[in-house]
Amino acid sequence: MTTAIVVGGGPNGLTAAALLARAGLDVTLLEAADEVGGGTRSQEALLPGLLHDHCSAVHSMTVASPAHKALDLARHGLRWRLPDVDCVHPLDDGTAGVLLRSVKDTARLLGPDGPRYRRLLEPSARHWEALSHDVLGPLLRVPSHPLLLARFGLPTPLPATLLARLFSTTRARALWAGVAAHSFRPLSEPFGSAIGLGILAAGHATGWAVAEGGSQAIARSLERALRAHGGRVHTGVRITRHTQIPPADVTLLDLDPAQIARVYGDRLPTRVRRAYQRYRRGPAAFKVDLAVEQGVPWTNAHARRSGFVHLGGTLAEIAQAARDVDDGRMPERPFVLVAQQYLADPGRSAGDVHPVWAYAHVPHGYDGDATEAILGRLERFAPGTRDRVTALRATSPAGFAAANPNFAGGDILTGASTVPRLLFGPRPALDPYSTTLPGVFSCSAATPPGPGAHGMCGAGAAASALRHLGATPDW
């Protein structure tokens, strides 16, 4: 029987392993931690019964993942839940940019900018299921739906600040900037609109969903799918040298490029090893988990019903914070993202005490304490929040890296969102998953299409592995 070893049990490693097992391979997954999941883990971090997500929290790009559909994760227990309001970007005057599931309803709330917003997003959102096969895969290939992809891709090369000129109101520009800022890139750089447009189109198609029972439910459903197809999982197995990896017909590595360079050392061609060692890392996240009695007292009413809230202020303020972070400076007013998953999934709360997840964009390797900066942003748009916080835990960039080596320096995206990375992965190559070692493939979020719980990096690597074996993937 053809054998496969997968090293690393994040969402990409799990997806790759499950798909290979589904294709008939004898698959073993090795995970260094005591449980699988990587960024898709959850825990009772503060109080019994109060469930917090470790990293990945809201999943607008994951619900329609072609790989997860092929694995039928609903059959393995995954349930998606949606809040009343997808995302809100409050402003100091009490107004806000508001994202609803419907493009039409969102456009209505944007007033004079509504028609332009609708023209920008409606075609891609309407056809997202078909479009996702091309967007959530290697870009350097013949697309399945070239006309749809061309329509979606036309504005993606624009800097986010330039695309913002499409809108005339402060709230529309701020709403757009907050979504574009998910890339952790300066908003003035080329292709700064790509990730934001993808998030918006996917969100309007499927909603900004959360997994019932925490993001850990995504990992658990993938593990069940893997086991259902005969695969095995071994946790607590840390691989530091390639000699520790059992022999197999194919090996897939859910490891960041620097780890691959260390594990395989001189076995890698010099040019590949150096490319992996020089791989550019991105900015970091500093996260605060909060236990909040009665929830956050937002000034804006929409924010009280929203699963996700962006605290960034105006377009100019968000752009300045992104420039500071990219330059290695801690912003005076950092961009903060707040998730209120319990609004869609009430089982995460403990009575009237609710879990609130918040993180700030900070420089790579930042060793300061951003807790007060995050609380200050909350107080700006929700006065009285501090009085409702009953417990708090901070996770620094070093804390993220300790929990998951792929997050070196607190870089939860596993690399800077540069154009070469989006096109080629960790090095220029026709097959972005190939390490050039026969039968050895990279499947971390450093490969296309990039970060997220969608598992499509793992799916792409699994497809390359099957083609190496002379088989044809069917997803």
TrEMBL record:
Q: InterPro entries under this entry?
A: FAD/NAD-bd_sf
- Any Pfam family: NAD_binding_8
SUPFAM superfamilies found in the cross-reference section:
FAD/NAD(P)-binding domain
Q: Identify the domain of life.
A: Bacteria
- Residue span of the signal peptide, if any? none
Q: Which PANTHER family match?
A: DEHYDROGENASE-RELATED, PHYTOENE DEHYDROGENASE
Q: What is the protein name given in its UniProt record?
A: FAD-dependent oxidoreductase
